[in-house]
Amino acid sequence: MMNIMKNLIVLVGMMGCGKSTIGAFLSRVIGYDFVDIDKEIEKSENMSITNIFNEYGEKYFRKIEKLKTFEYVNRKKIVLSLGGGGFEDEETREILKKYGFVIYLKATPECLFNRIKTEIHRPLLRKNFSVDSIAFILKKRHNNYEKAHVTIDTTNKTKKEIVCKIERLIK
Ligand code: S3P
Q: What is the pLDDT at residue 115?
């Protein structure tokens, strides 16, 4: 059982919680491949996430996101970063928890805001970007994120500290 869990490490959490940065760093340290679901969607759709949202809408994006995530559940030795809304889907949560070890990277709305304020590619935050709008989304998603196998508070922690902590948890 433990072996299966350790083969697939899944990072979930809000936009700006560090899934991509931590995931890329962690995968280098432990010698796994890194898969960022958003990037894989952009590659196979040949479109940016923003354009997919604008042209086809969020519902279509969620469908593709789910299908794409399911493609990776049986892969070995990968660190998977799931887009911030991907863990809202019940079947996705269940399958990832069954085949993988799911880690919620938790951060406060203020911390998330500071990390993403210079980025403009987040369709969900485009219109109304503030600490409050992040807090609003986080409040809705919080319960589902907490269903991960473990929660790591990333507030005021360095990338290295977080990766060391994850390394201890997956061994
Ligand atoms: C989203 C987060 C984004 C991306 C899309 C929707 C969300 O991924 O999937 O813009 O619903 O929180 P990141 O969490 O990697 O930014």
A: 86
Domains in the chain, ordered, with CATH?
A: 8-170 (3.40.50.300)
* Pocket-testing residue among 122, 126, 134, 141, ligand 1, by greatest number of atoms within 8 A of Cβ: 122
Query: Structure tokens of 33?
Result: 């491949």
Which tops the pLDDT comparison, 34 or 3?
34
Backbone phi and psi for residue 12, each to the nearest 5 degrees, phi listed first: -125, 160
Cβ 84 under 6 angstroms from ligand 1: yes
pLDDT at 129: 78
Residue found by looking up tokens 């952009």 in the block: 42
**Of 55, 56, 49, 59, which is closest to residue 121 (Cα–Cα)?**
49
Q: Taking residues 144-148, report their average pLDDT.
A: 98
